[in-house]
Amino acid sequence: MNSNNPVFNNSPAFNGQGASTYGNQTYPGAGAAYPAPGQQYGDASSWGTGTPGAPVQADRALTIDDVVQKTGISLGLVVVVAAALWFGTGDISTADGNYGMLIGLTAVGMIGGLIIGLVAAFKKSMLSPGLVLAYAALEGLFMGGISKVIQAQVDSPIVMQAILGTIAAAGGMLAAYKFFNIKIGDKFRRGFIAASFGFLGLMLLEMVLSAFGNGLGLFGDGGMGFVFALAGLGFGVVGLLLDFDMVERGIAAGVSQRFAWTAAFGLTASLVMVYFYLLRLLSILNQD
Hints:
By secondary structure, the chain is an all-alpha fold.
């Protein structure tokens, strides 16, 4: 079962295409059934009932603790970088604030995060910790900057409300998935992925049209902006549900614990999406 998240969808470890694996071990191909010269064998006393001469196991299967730990590190970096940008740029409503630096770093985070996100989405193998942490840092810049700009436009503490709402959404989706034993059907998955691509295409079209002054208002504070933000929030929340399913299936399949970083990337991206569109909705609702 594939996820709407392309990071999980393209990873053989999570999309069920790793047919040559048993647990987290890969069957050797032709001519590779035995260790190469110099490869170490395990201690004979530790072979037990396994195959005599088996090499030392250099890896172990993925666990939920691995996913939680790596996702916590990734999200923690997002928060730390966002807070550093927020407090480091001062009060942007006065001359003491550095509004130019805020906008510049926000743009760096947005563009850099988009680039790494596209690279990760089309990467077939597992993601490296460095790539995931770089993405988290860039998303921290974008989230911290855009949050400060939007918060400056309203009186209500919508940033804190969006943070609490994101936590509630993630917890609610996880609880619903576990306690109601939700099964993700193949038709639902395909339909949701198709709709996600449509949403992305519409967003890119709006960016192009807005550059020429003919936007549809999807990024504005009017009715179209509200509908678009509501749709984005819906995609993010349901996407979390599909991502939980992918992680559970990966753990059940016994994929390598190294894929915890790939899982962390996908979950971080989904949570960032939920937070951003929830912040947009709150901003629109609090406009005068």
